[in-house]
From TrEMBL:
It comes from Balaeniceps rex. This is Proteasome assembly chaperone 2. GO terms for biological process: proteasome assembly. Belongs to the PSMG2 family. InterPro entries: Proteasome_assmbl_chaperone_2 (IPR019151), Proteasome_assmbl_chp_2_euk (IPR016562), PSMG2_sf (IPR038389). It is found in: Nucleus. Forms a heterodimer with PSMG1. The PSMG1-PSMG2 heterodimer interacts directly with the PSMA5 and PSMA7 proteasome alpha subunits. Chaperone protein which promotes assembly of the 20S proteasome as part of a heterodimer with PSMG1. The PSMG1-PSMG2 heterodimer binds to the PSMA5 and PSMA7 proteasome subunits, promotes assembly of the proteasome alpha subunits into the heteroheptameric alpha ring and prevents alpha ring dimerization. Keywords: Chaperone, Nucleus, Phosphoprotein. Signal peptide: none annotated.
Amino acid sequence: LLQPAVSVGNVGQLAIDLVISTLDMTKVGYFYTDCLVPMVGNNPYATAEENSMELSINAEVYSLPSKKLVVLQIRSPFIKNKYRPFCQTLLSWVKSSKCVRVVLLSSSHAYQRDDEQLLGTPLRYLLTPDLEKAVGGIMQELNWKEMEKVAAYPGINDTEKVLHIPGGGITKLLFTESCSKGIQMAVLLKFCSEGDNIPDAFALVNYLNEWLQLIKSEVNTSSQWKIPSSWRLLFGSGLPPALF
């Protein structure tokens, strides 16, 4: 299962858009929940006039059996105090559906990084203990950087470290709940700021592709991903015509 966190810059959601559009995934259902703000709109992945008027809602499920991949796309923010009920419902669904692994695409405020997090790549990962046993070695081979823990009380007690993901939405809660429930989950995130987050989305989806090889490519570039038609309405003026 691949899904986004509703986090700073909507980077995870944009990256999921690129996966669904590029792999031409089939919509197989909806994820009904009262934890998200209700919404409805036209088909964000329309390829012709015939399917442009299909309706989409706030949480939908897409599938690609050939890659044993299911994607949950979330398109609206959470209702106040509904984070925990959503996480419980989602993880219950994950277990009942027998999803082997969950990959959560997220982001975190760049301006709230500590000194250590300022070094090197702005991309980070987290693995639950159950997944660490299975793929920890692969992450080392890829030379990825694990999300650093930060001082719980900076300047007072720097020895006590905690996981801190500012701007990450449900990321930390979903990750810690997965750890306690024995669910294999990976979090891939990028430090970023609000604004034009298209480059951040490309960076995150390329990061994902380094590991899962959703599309075959010797060099990760933005041109290998298919831009959804809905992006023209939001970002059209900022995208080169060659991307359409």
